[in-house]
User: Fold this.
Amino acid sequence: MNYKDISTDNLLKINTLAQLKAAGYESKSVKQELRDNLIAKLRNKEEVFPGIWGYEETVVPDMQRAILSMHHINLLGLRGQAKTRMARMMVDLLDEYIPVVAGSELNDDPLQPLSIYAQNLIAEKGDDTPLTWLHRSERYTEKLATPDVSVADLIGDADPIKAATLKLPYSDERVIHFGLIPRSHRGIFVINELPDLQARIQVSLFNILQEGDIQIRGFKVRLPLDIQFVFTANPEDYTNRGSIVTPLKDRIDSQIITHYPKSIEIGKKITLQEAKIKKEQQKAVQTNELVSDLIEQVAMEARDSELVDAKSGVSARLTISVYENMISAAERRTLINGESKTYIRVADFLAAVPAITGKVELVYEGEQEGAGLVAQKLMGKAIRTQFLNYFPDPDKQKKQKNNNVYRLITNWFGEGHTIDILNDMSAADYNKTLMGVPGLSGLIDKLHGSSDNQTKLFLMEFCLHGLAEHSLISRNKLTAGTQFKDLLSSMFTMPSFGAEDEEDDFK
Assistant:
């Protein structure tokens, strides 16, 4: 009988050591399992890390090479770069089920028992030793490294209660209470934020990684643990809170460097995949590509901003949160106005400031500005950058006296007219307000005539924000929305009492 040919249902019916031997079972290390299953997936042209975008030519090949080499792995990168997610997905490369000695703490292999309990049980019952089957989902352990993690947590300690209950002397190995790492035998063990682990705790991992030795309270225990270690670390931690001690780094075979999405298109895939949008929100709110581009542009602007700490990074969670918040802002408007559907607006995008303020670490100058104002500036820069992908460059248009496509719009504001785009205004009022600006609708028809009416309205609002970013008109932040007016007149208008009427410094 070939063990590999046995169906899962029949496999789970094997419940004694004798049956397992008869089935032709052969022990295999966890790293060999990962390697064999990866080879099978690659040969079958299967996707190994589905849903991981932007790493196809960089991180994913590095991970595959490390697994084929049967290496321990350290994923090094800034926050929000899918390090933990990739570690968790390695579970899918394990065999679906493995046999273990029933009742063993250390997932003992029936053919290679590790613990005293399993060895004694097999010595007593022989081929009648009972077995259970462990699913691959139960062979993954994850620990966040924090300063209070102890050797007892990871490795183990003598348990006085156990000694008293079993009436054993402290010299008996059975009084040991094993920690997380021994209990992860024959599985994957992940330590997140490794540099945050105290140096003396990191030292306790040396022998486990290299020789498989552990020492617990003076017990001379040799456990040849079979574990695939995966660590994650932020390079900022090397100089800030802590560091990985050199001998430990030397024992981690492959260090793989992760990165942020290198294009807006990849960023959009990640955001749309991870954002938790309710079904009722999907029905109520219609979006477009431009607003998704704006969201990803905010993250790119933040990563390049002199006000944001580049060493800390800007997580992909920023764009996900902004997208969710933006959809909720549009949904809220439908609820307030008693509407069943709405189309996304630039106002909804700008309402997502709270989704940014907690996601960026600011340098001193940024702290002086304030998190809210920095978020608004980043949004403004995103609008300015994306504006040029949809409209002629305003700086070049200024030089064309007779052919300036923005002349009708800017002249109308120059005559003293203003408009208020409120966050919660109804669809009818929104339409009426934008259509009331001479030349605005005509410009959109000329440049984006094939777009539907709702998209044209969005582009009209976007155009006003873009013109404000290029200093052709003025934009003021109101408590409940945004006001547009002539740039020159706003310079001579004293702001009313209250921050909501001050000139908005998005630019």
User: Anything to note?
Assistant: The longest strand covers residues 227-233. The domain at 56-69+71-82+144-257 is CATH 3.40.50.300 (Rossmann fold). The chain has three domains: 56-69+71-82+144-257, 260-389, 392-507.
